[in-house]
Structure formats: C-alpha cells, structure tokens
Amino acid sequence: MSTKPTHDLIQRYVDAWNSHDVPAIEAFFTDDCCYEDTAFGLVNTGKQELRTFLEEAFSTVPNMHFDVQGVVLGDDGVGVGWAWTMSGNPVDGKNPDAAPQGPPAVSQGASLTYFRDGLIVRNLDYYDSKPFLGI
pTM for the whole thing? Predict the structure, then answer.
C-alpha cells in the first residue's frame, strides 16, 4: 500500500472537516502531530490539543465549510488551496444553536500538509482572518 498522499485522501479529509467529524479528522493524524493555524498564531501539538482545537473551532463557527480550489501532490506532502466559508458571524460558543448573523464570510487560504507513514504529521494553515473578524 502506498503511503503517498492522493487526491482521494485529501477529499476524504476535507469531507471530514465539512462534516465537523472530530474523530474522523483525528484519524488522519499521527499521535505526535502538529497543527498550526498561522492566522491566529495557534500551535496544537498531539491529538489531544488537536481535538480541543477542532471542538472549539466547530463550536465557534458551526457552519464552516471548505471548498478545495486546487491540490499539489508531493512524495510526503501536499499543498491545498481552499475557500473557507461561514454563513454570517461566528457564535460565541455560549449558544451554539443560535442562527449566525450577518452576511456570509469567505476567505481564500492554503494548507501545507506533511505526511509520515500515510498520516498527517504536520499541517500549516495560511489564510486571511479579516473576513471572519468583520474587518
């Protein structure tokens, strides 16, 4: 079995994000993973920190959705361009059932994702956070 990343693998990973399925997302990562959200300066090391990050992200932005714009495959990593959309302003986590307010926000971004033995060992997300902050 090949451990190189494939377009199918990336689509399944994005599908897990769009389903907000934390255990499914975690399954793509090594136990010692590092997930970096560079826009907010967040570094999450290991699956427990990744899980906390994901749960907080989905609680804060319960309607986030990613559309893949392009994928560049390498032997041990990928570059993925994407558009991140949320329907209105994020909620504060205190009332996750509240309807989002305001117009949809969209940001273009890219992820550099590195693999080891078929699993993600490091991910770096680069995007403009201003649309989500109302700036």
Answer: 0.86
